[in-house]
Amino acid sequence: MEEKKLQVGGQAVIEGVLMRSKDAYAIAVRRSDGSILVRKKNFISFIKKYKLFALPIFRGGWVLIESLILGIRALTFSGDIAALGEKEDNSKDEGEPSGLPPKKSLLQNIWLVLTVGFSFVLGLFIFFYIPLILTDLLGAETGFMFNLIDGVLRLTMFLLYLSLITLMKDVRRVFEYHGAEHKSIFAFESKVDLTPDNAMKMTRFHPRCGTSFLLIVMLVSIVVFMFLGKPETVSERLIRLAFIPVIGGISYELIRLSDSGSKNKFWRPFILPGLWLQRLTTKEPDESQLEVAIVALKSALGLDISTHKDVVMETEMEAKAQPSTI
Q: HSE (CB half, 13 Å, CA atoms) of 106?
């Protein structure tokens, strides 16, 4: 039963939610006209195709890569829908809008890849390299103290970052959908009918959350870097980046363990910090947001969504947009 739980996961996006099952993912986004647009795609994990990469520690790195790819796809899709909605609201052109964003050109795709790459490098610089520089300036001598201070600074910067972005209205809106994602998954795992009313009763704090995972990454990195000692040169600092997959793999196994042991009294104290941190990254959703999350979850699982009003599948809209032939 625990393994079945792990087959369902999700992510909040702009005015929507990405949900992933064992063989598909679905993105549901609330459009400016109130309807819900759904994109569903089949997706088989790399670790299911190649059993070698399904081994503990190894699988964590591949899961992270796949989650990053799907997350970028979902954020791009939801962002395009939001931009299209603003354009249609401000447009005075006659005729019925297609409701679908235009396909990206090669130049736009290249720009997207460069933007994502730059963001990734910037994140590494801020959360991995700057703490090393600050720790060095503080004059830590031993490898133990250096890595301990470095880890505390990294964790402090991470918490400060989360606290600051929570103040942004648009980000808070995404965090509300994050809460809707958690509540919907809890409703599914509790085997109750997937309705906004039932999901609303669930907690928004889930032990398998990405926020808890990031906290575990921060803590695991302190332990792993302890074995590397104090970095004396720039190359020794940069070589730490090569251990990120190892840190991610260990953290993934721990997040799996925290999920299976979330009701165990022994493991509960170790899980609580991650749940507390979710008070920053999840907010209470409304019924409209819960409905979007449920539609995404049902679509990913292949369940019936006909009872939900104003739901449009992307494939249906694409078919209507095709010129008719006689």
A: 0
Residue 268's pLDDT band (cuts 50, 70, 90): confident
**DSSP state string for 234-268:** HHHHHGGGGGHHHHHHHHHHHHHHHHHTTT-TTTH
Whose CA is closest to 40, among 56, 58, 18, 22?
Answer: 18
Cβ neighbour number for residue 196 with a 10 Å cutoff: 21
- Strands 9-13 vs 16-20: parallel, antiparallel or unpaired: antiparallel
CA 287 – CA 128 distance, rounded (Å): 39
Question: Which residue's structure tokens are 């042991």?
Answer: 261
What are the pLDDT digits (tens) for 50-104? 777 778 888 888 888 888 889 999 999 999 898 887 766 665 454 444 567 777 7
Q: Helices (H), strands (E): how many in the chain?
A: 14, 5
Q: Which of 275, 281, 272 has the alpha carbon at shortest distance from 179?
A: 281
The Cα–Cα gap between 125 and 234 comes to 13
The Cα 290–Cα 282 span in angstroms is: 13
Longest Cα–Cα distance in the chain? 80
pLDDT in tens, 221-241: 999 999 988 888 888 888 888
Q: How far apart are CA 24 and CA 246, in angstroms?
A: 27
Q: DSSP class of residue 166?
A: T
Helix (H) or strand (E) holding 132: helix 130-137
The model's pTM: 0.87
Q: Would you list the domain boundaries of the chain?
A: 2-91+98-321
pLDDT in tens, 89-147: 665 454 444 567 777 777 877 887 888 888 888 888 888 889 988 998 888 888 899 99
Question: If you count them, how many residues does the chain have?
Answer: 326
Q: Show Cβ contacts of residue 108 under 8 Å, excluding neighbours closer than 6 positions.
A: none
